[in-house]
Write a structure and sequence with these properties.
Layout (H helix, E strand, L loop, with lengths): L9 E4 L5 H12 L3 E4 L4 H11 L2 E2 L7 H15 L4 E4 L13 H29 L2 E6 L3 H4 L5 H21 L4 E6 L7 H4 L5 H4 L7 H14 L3 E2 L4 H11 L1 H17 L4
Parallel strand pairs: 1-2, 1-4, 2-3, 4-5, 5-6, 6-7
Helix pairs in contact: 1-9, 3-4, 4-6, 10-11
Length: 262
């Protein structure tokens, strides 16, 4: 596969007001792409766009109406969308006591946002013969996570939907990729509470480090983009020795319950 040249390509990054989204948007802008910065927080979207030389389109990137408004406005500004980063995510809820609202929000933001964007993007990409859809999932979408059920389940669904897109449209010129990091120094990590130590066991990366991994992943074209290389080994272990994997996760959960994780 030849190197990906993004100069003058139209790129949309959702949830790009800060964190991983901002770092990805900055990297793509640095490489010459014309970048639309989306974020639910309008002030952060405008500030980020000004910082990287992009164009701010604040708004909801999850609801049916919000996704349609974003893509319509992005097309009006860019002319066409070449790469769409479905990056916005949420970590609401915890365990079985998570509310119905928390579950609904997790599924809306972490899954249905991707489905709704793909519905609007894929037909035009098929007509022109290509496009790229990149989902920010999580290592939790490959390995499960201790603690947060709505997050773990919805991130699994995000990876599953990305896989389905890749299978269904990959032979027709559409590239689909899933970014699956572990601990990243973002607000989400800061708010992880007692689970933070688990997330940074293999080291916490900066958003900029993740963006560099994403850039390399775009060049290589592999479906999984794994900023933490350990995740590949864990994923293989989980698939090959599922009961052993579950046993090790149960031992970690026991330590969490006892307050002895460190």
């Amino acid at each position: 596969m030849g190197l990906l040249d993004v100069r003058d390509q139209g790129v949309v990054v959702t949830g790009a007001g800060r964190g991983i989204g901002l770092a990805i948007a900055a990297k793509l802008a640095e490489e010459g792409a014309r970048v639309v910065v989306n974020d639910l927080d309008a002030a952060e979207a405008h500030e980020a766009a000004a910082e990287i030389g992009g164009f701010a389109i604040p708004g909801d990137a999850a609801s049916e109406e919000g996704v349609e408004a974003l893509i319509t406005a992005a097309r009006a500004h860019l002319g066409d969308i070449d790469i769409y980063f479905a990056n916005a995510g949420t970590a609401v809820g915890v365990g079985l006591d998570s509310t119905e609202e928390a579950w609904a929000t997790a599924l809306e933001v972490n899954v249905m946002a991707h489905v709704r964007a793909a519905r609007l993007l894929v037909p035009s990409w098929l007509e022109r013969g290509g496009g790229r859809f990149v989902v920010t999932a999580s290592a939790a979408g490959l390995l499960a996570t201790i603690g947060n059920a709505p997050y773990s389940v919805s991130k699994h669904a995000a990876v599953g939907f990305a896989e389905w897109l890749a299978i269904t449209y990959g032979h027709r010129g559409i590239t689909v990729q899933a970014i699956c990091p572990q601990g990243v120094t973002t607000r989400m990590l800061d708010e992880a509470g007692p689970f933070k130590e688990l997330l940074i066991r293999d080291g916490a990366l900066s958003p900029e480090q993740v963006a560099e991994s994403v850039w390399q992943g775009l060049q290589e074209g592999e479906f999984l983009i794994l900023p933490h290389p350990e995740v590949r080994e864990y994923y293989m272990s989980r698939a090959g020795h599922t009961d052993r994997w579950l046993g090790s996760m149960q031992r970690i959960q026991r330590k969490v319950d006892e307050g002895s994780v460190g």
